[in-house]
Every structure is written in structure tokens, then in C-alpha cells.
Amino acid sequence: MIDDFLTENAENAGNAGNAGHLTQVEAAVRAAAAAEIMPRYQQLASHEIIEKSGPHDLVTTADRRAEEHLTDSLTRLLPGSVVVGEEAVHTDPRVYDELGGEAPVWIVDPVDGTRQFVRGEPGFCTLVALAHHGEVLASWTYAAALDEMAIAVRGRGATLNGKPLHAGSPAPGAVLKVAMSHPDFTSDAQKRALLGLRTAGIDARPCGSAGLEYLAVACGAQDAIAFNWEFAWDHAAGLLLVTEAGGAQSTLSGATFRITGGNDLPFTAARDETTRDRVLAALRTGA
């Protein structure tokens, strides 16, 4: 079922009445943003912004409505699939267990970078990934305010607005640009590891939208990320995007990041293996 779904029929891809499934998912992501997110961009009323766990953890009407929109459209496209969305899990944490189930799973973050969205800044995106048996098979990263759509399919590469993405490698001897987790979301042990990035040869800064940080790595505009949290909706789409653009990733122990959790944190994703190893070495020094 999954293999058939991921087979884009090139002959029909340009036919709106019979588009391939990948094209239909892209259309669904764009439609959710057009209907629920962009009409509220820079137009949010105060009652549409709610704190969840604190002032840095926000949800808006746009988040909730867009997730509902995507849940309906994506499960229609792939009957028998389920959705693990950030807002649904906040309501019922048991939904997260679907990541380890038998059904194909859509992993959804309707507005990644909610704080930026609330401030009326363009640095937010919608993240959708399709996974099965713990493996991410395809992903869509849509920055509606920037008009950027990045798509990755396992084993078939990554594109940005239809053009191939290649992460490339930093210039020899260049200072590495690394986006890292905010200190306020970091345990003491993880904070020590992240402090290892404050070293010669690395320019580390707090991250913005995780999805856009991954896109920057896949484009070669940034060298790596180092994050200490593991919610699948923040990372599934971006990790596939980076690896399909030629990049590499690893947890602190050297393992591949698992979307089902239990990872040794922090973890990193980088433009190439050499950069990944440099970032890992710095994190381990701090730890």
C-alpha cells in the first residue's frame, strides 16, 4: 500500500484530475495553509493565542484548524492511515503511540515556529511526514509566507520548489554555522553538551523554527543543527530532507535518530559526515 502510494505517476502528475499521490499531498498542505494559516498571518486576535505549558509554548487557532484540515485531507488520500499531530497529542498523549503501530502515520506540525507566527514574522512552516514502522518515507516542508515548498522522498532525493537540493560541504577551514536548542528547553546535562559548541571553529546560535533550520542545512545555507528534544513532528520531515539532500545525522551515542523516541540527546544533522562528526565531537566534549 505504501509503495503504491509513493509511486508518483509521471504521466499523470500534471493532470489535475489524476495527479500522483505526492502531488496530492503537496496540494493538501498548500490548501491547509491557504485556508487556515495565511488568513490569520499578521491578523491574529488576542483570543486566538493560547499558552500551553508556558509563555514560550504557544498554540493559536491557526495551529488547531490547520491540523484538523490536514487530518481530514491526508487520511482521505491514504485510507487506513492515522495522524500524529502536535495539537492532537497535546489533547491526548496516547495518540503518540501510533508512531509504533502497524498503520501508516502522517506526522504533522501545522505551524512550526508558532512564536514567529504570533509575532507576524515569516519564519514559520508547516511540516508533514509519512512514516511506516518507524521509518520516515516522505516529507513536505512548506513555508507559506516565504513561498517555499521542500519535498523529500526516501531514496529519491530532495527538492525545493521543484529544483534538486544538495547540501554540499563547508569550505575547508570555514567556521561552522550551527543552530542549537534554546537553553530554556534544556536539562543540565544536555546544556553542558550544547556548551561544547561554544568553541573555536563553531558559530552556534539559538534556533528558530526547527523545520526551517533543517531546510537551511539541506540548502547549504547553514552547516548543522544540534537539538535536545525529540518530538517527531519537529524532526521527522527535516531529518529526511537533510539526508536526502546528501547530509548526515546522528544522536550523541552515534545512533540514527528514532522518531519513536528514546534517543541519546542532543543529536545533530549536518551537511555532510565530516561536519556531523565535528559537531558530535564538540557535543561529547561538553558532555
Automatic annotation (TrEMBL):
Key words, A-Z: Hydrolase, Magnesium, Metal-binding
One Pfam family named in its UniProt record: Inositol_P
Catalytic activity, as annotated: a myo-inositol phosphate + H2O = myo-inositol + phosphate
PANTHER family linked to this entry: INOSITOL MONOPHOSPHATASE, INOSITOL-1-MONOPHOSPHATASE-RELATED
The keyword Phosphoprotein belongs to this UniProt entry's keyword annotation: no
The keyword Cytoplasm is annotated on this UniProt entry: no
SUPFAM superfamilies: Carbohydrate phosphatase
Cofactors: Mg(2+)
GO biological process: inositol metabolic process; phosphatidylinositol phosphate biosynthetic process; signal transduction
A Gene Ontology molecular function term of the record: metal ion binding
Superkingdom field: Bacteria
Signal peptide range in chain numbering: none
Enzyme Commission designation: 3.1.3.25
Binding site for Mg(2+): E86, D109, D112, D234
Origin species: Streptomyces fulvorobeus
Protein name: inositol-phosphate phosphatase
Coiled-coil residue spans: none
